[in-house]
Design goal:
This protein has 903 residues and is α+β, with helices and mostly antiparallel strands. The protein contains 33 helices and 38 strands. It has an 8-stranded mixed barrel with strand order 30-31-33-34-35-36-37-38, surrounded by 4 helices. It has a 6-stranded mixed beta sheet with strand order 1-3-2-6-5-4, with helices on both faces. Strands 18-17-22-21-20-19 form a 6-stranded antiparallel beta sheet, sandwiched between helices. The longest helix is centred in the C-terminal third of the chain and has 24 residues, at 717-740.
Length: 903
């Protein structure tokens, strides 16, 4: 052993000792290090001669003496795992012959399960009494031997473990001694090996033991009684049998391998006589073992395999089966040690070669390009489709670095060589699936491909050969791009559609203001209905093109559907600027449009939303608010623009809530009919009642008809309300006529939408039949403006109603610009003068003259005249003088429920 008192930096040993938790306890100890190399090296720090009582001794003397002291620890050092701590006291005579004791504290060091040496502290033990007895020294040595033993040793007394060496702690997977010591020994014994506790034996026997984590293992045990006390003590030596059992299993597996392996294994003598033939050989060659053994090898294999030539190597040969069929075989030959001969391992490659041929045929026929790139990055193979897609013949592809392929990502950036999919897969083993890249061919043409790269053999990542496959998706991508454009653009005008407009609004720069202009062409429906849809489509195309030309390159111009367009701009901000921009758009749209030889004039109503940088409204919210403002512009006379504000939104939201509430009111009893008396001016008696709908809202109370009737007209609820009023009022008045003998007529209003309802006539017929009200007692009133909208259609509906026997009246006369000739074609019974002509009639000669003319015209065609809105006695007296037949108004009676009116 080599010695070196100054080897290495002293501070290095000190730091290692501190990390291992080894420090001199009394300040007089000396650190030492033993490295179990060949030869072993023992080093120490200065002061060892004083500790050993050998002042001035040479390095060799100190090395020899320390080596002798450490011998109990180094005897079985390589079998002791690293991290094991030992403490030992050894006798030592000083230079003057004085006996002394040396205490050695050491720890095994190394890597993982391999111990490479010792690190420790040597210190002199102060003598406090007589020298230690030989028996005590023997006890110390025995305990050290037990601690160093590679076998697990436990001592138990009365069934309780009183001692366990470090090997036992390791075997039972204990982290500390207290997890084993003081525990019941039976807790470490499996139930099937209870005999180890109940009947301990000094003879070696196998037992199943348990670790602290509950796992079991098989061990060979010897139990020796160490005392005659009661209860007795036993020392149990435990040796893990796992390795022995594994070795036995390996032998059995080796024997089974020959029997069950898929390769044919044949043993032959040096003269070529078959001496061994496994079941796989029977399957491959068709010769039973009994017939093959004893024959010459060329008879059963079809050729002489020449084992001498291929000894310790591999050869590919064509053998023959018993039926003469060829077998493509990979053969390896090894000389046998027991007899003069060879062992042949024959792997039948026939099926694999057939599969490879089929695979090569399939790959060659694929439309998908396939490249195999070898470990050096060179292209090793390429199928015809790969050559076609890449535009390179096979001869110019093979052996070329894969980095010669120029690829770009979807953003147009060239992919660096070290990030090419093939290179990346070869470097990391990561598979790329369906990666879309653009490939630049040598002829300059770009091809889009969907590319996949993976290791050729995933079970052997060290092979790093990569197979790259790719499909030409250039045409598919072009189709997808076209479909994507069509999905986001209006097919008629080629402008952005609603989806794209919303997307652009969502992705707008939140730091800049913007404006959203919602446009609706005025009276476009008239163009569509009168000139046909082809003309209407052409007008929409022209309008879209004009808007596109009138806006900037960064503005978004879209068609939302029908005649609705939207413009989103960030170039014009501020209410005044946007107002000028909106007026410019209107002027562009209003230029004459020539379609099929016709000159048409367009105009638009616009709603504008100003978007501030901190505006958090969504794209849908912005369009909704712009639509609300556009609706406001429409309601104020069309051909204008309105800016959106919060108050406008609140009005519209109330309108929407009221519309929904009105739908609910139809079925929840909130609607009820009121009746306003109609008085005969000659007799002063009530001759009829006009049914008027009223709404008592559960939250807002009475809702004015001026608010909810227009809502019903716009939402087509008016048809539902009309049927409700007709059904309930006819039933109620029929009951009053029968129960009280009242000879009253019922007047019910019809809206414009009801005239278009094909169910109107059947509804009137059913109401009369169900309630029993005489048809002549029902008068249906239609406004003059509704009749003038389409006199032909109105005449047809009124004729059908007249056939039921009901009476017909024109309401609000004087507001719809009708003529007497038109009235004669409509077969009416009653004319109601609008309240605007009655109000102030007593003070206005002009109003009186107009009313006089209306009464005269009506009487000329046998119409009964009813004046609406009579508020004063003076108005009533004047109407009597003018010859008016009937009147109604607050002066004569307010609308009341039937129970109040007829109480």
């Amino acid at each position: 052993m080599e010695a070196d008192a100054l080897a290495g930096e002293p501070g290095g040993i000190t730091r290692r000792a501190q990390l291992a938790g080894l420090r001199p306890t009394d300040g007089a100890g000396v650190l030492f290090s033993l490295h179990a190399s060949d030869p072993a090296t023992l080093t120490w720090l200065p002061g060892l001669d004083a500790v050993l009582g050998l002042p001035g001794a040479s390095g060799k003397e100190l090395c020899d003496r320390l080596t002798e002291l450490l011998r109990p620890l180094t005897a079985d050092l390589r079998r002791t795992p690293p991290g094991r701590d030992f403490e030992l006291e050894q006798p030592q005579d000083g230079a003057d012959g004085t006996p002394r004791r040396i205490r050695l504290r050491a720890r095994t060091v190394g890597e993982q399960d391999h111990t490479t040496g010792l690190l420790g502290v040597a210190s002199a033990v102060a003598e406090t009494g007589t020298a230690k007895s030989a028996l005590a020294e023997l006890s110390d040595r025995y305990q050290l031997l037990m601690e160093q033993s590679p076998d697990a040793i436990c001592v138990h007394s009365g069934g309780v473990v009183t001692y366990a060496n470090q090997a036992a702690l390791d075997l039972f997977a204990a982290r500390a001694a207290h997890e084993v010591v003081s525990q019941e020994f039976a807790s470490f014994v499996a139930a099937e090996s209870a005999h180890l506790v109940e009947n301990p034996s000094a003879e070696p026997s196998e037992a199943v033991l348990k670790r602290l984590d509950g796992s079991k293992f098989v061990a060979e045990t010897v139990s020796v009684r160490t005392s005659d006390s009661n209860p007795p003590s036993f020392q149990v030596v435990i040796r893990d049998s796992t390795v022995k059992h594994a070795a036995a299993a390996a032998v059995r597996a080796q024997e089974a391998l020959v029997t069950h392996v898929s390769d044919a294994i044949v043993t032959i003598t040096g003269e070529g006589i078959v001496t061994g033939w496994n079941p796989a050989a029977e399957t491959v060659y068709g010769w039973p073992s009994a017939e093959a053994i004893g024959r010459r090898v060329h008879e059963v294999l079809g050729i002489d395999p020449d084992p001498v030539a291929i000894r310790d190597g591999v050869a590919e040969q064509t053998h023959r089966g018993r039926d003469g069929s060829p077998r493509l075989v990979r053969v390896s030959a090894t000389e046998t040690e027991t007899v003069d001969g060879f062992l042949l391992v024959c792997t039948d490659e026939t099926a694999r070669r057939r599969v490879e041929q089929h695979y090569a045929t399939v790959v060659a026929a694929l439309d998908e390009g396939v490249l195999v790139v070898g470990p050096t990055g060179l292209i090793q193979s390429a199928n015809p489709s790969a050559c076609r897609i890449l535009g390179v013949p096979e001869a110019k592809l093979l052996g070329v670095p894969c980095t010669t392929l120029v690829l770009f990502d979807e953003d147009g950036n060239r992919i660096p060589d070290d990030e090419l999919p093939t290179i990346h897969t070869r470097r990391t083993g990561i598979t790329h699936n369906g990666l879309v890249v653009r490939l630049r061919r040598p002829d300059g043409r770009d091809v889009w491909v969907s590319l996949t790269s993976r290791l050729l053999d995933t079970d052997d990542p060290n092979g790093v050969s990569v197979v790259t496959s790719f499909t030409d998706i250039t045409e598919r991508r072009a189709i997808s791009a076209r479909l994507a454009h069509e999905a986001t653009h209006d097919p008629l005008t080629r402008l952005a559609n609603r989806t794209l407009v919303l997307d652009r609004l969502d992705r707008r720069d939140g730091t800049e203001p913007a404006a959203v202009l919602f446009l609706d062409l005025d009276k476009f429906k008239l163009i569509n209905d009168s000139l046909g849809h082809p003309v209407g489509d052409q007008v929409l195309r022209i309008a879209g093109e004009r808007l596109r030309r009138a806006t900037g390159p960064d503005d978004v111009v879209g068609r939302l559907g029908g005649d609705e367009f939207v413009v989103v701009t960030s170039a014009t901000t501020g209410q005044a600027q946007v107002g000028v921009f909106a007026a410019h758009l209107r002027s562009v749209l209003s230029e004459p449009v020539s379609v099929h030889g016709r000159q048409l004039h367009l105009d638009a109503s616009m709603g504008i939303v100003l978007v501030e940088p901190d505006d958090r409204r969504s794209a849908e919210d912005l369009l909704r608010d712009a639509d609300v403002a556009m609706y406001q512009a429409k309601s104020r006379g069309r051909g204008r623009f309105e800016f959106f504000d919060v108050a406008l939104r609140e009005r519209m939201q109330r309108r929407l809530r009221m519309e929904q509430d009105l739908r609910d009111a139809v079925h929840s009893g909130q609607l009820w009919p009121a009746y306003q008396p109609v008085v005969d001016l000659r007799t002063g008696e009530m001759v009829g009642v006009e049914a008027l709908l009223r709404w008592t809202h559960p939250k807002h109370g009475a809702i004015s008809p001026a608010e909810f009737i227009p809502l019903a007209e716009e939402s087509e609820l008016i048809n539902v309300l009309g049927k409700y009023v007709l059904r309930d009022t006819t039933r109620e008045l029929a009951a009053l006529r029968t129960g009280r003998g009242l000879d009253l007529s019922l007047k019910v209003n019809l809206s414009v939408r009801q005239l278009d309802d094909p169910h109107l006539v059947p509804a009137v017929r059913d109401a009369l039949a169900t309630t029993g009200l005489p048809p002549g007692s029902l008068t249906l009133e239609v406004t003059e403006s509704a009749l003038m909208r389409d006199t032909s259609a109105a005449a047809e509906v009124l004729s059908a109603l007249r056939s039921l026997g009901v009476l017909l009246a024109i309401d609000d006369f004087g507001t719809g610009y009708s003529s007497l000739a038109q009235l004669r074609r409509l077969t009416l019974d009653t004319l109601k003068i609008d309240r605007s002509f009655i109000t102030g009639i007593a003070e206005s000669r002009d109003a009186a003259a107009i009313v006089t003319s209306i009464i005269a015209m009506a009487h000329a065609v046998d119409l009964t005249v009813v004046a609406e809105g009579v508020e004063t006695a003076e108005e009533l007296a004047l109407l009597r003088e003018l010859g008016c037949d009937q009147a109604q108004g607050y002066h004569l009676g307010r609308p009341l429920a039937a129970a109040e009116l007829f109480q």
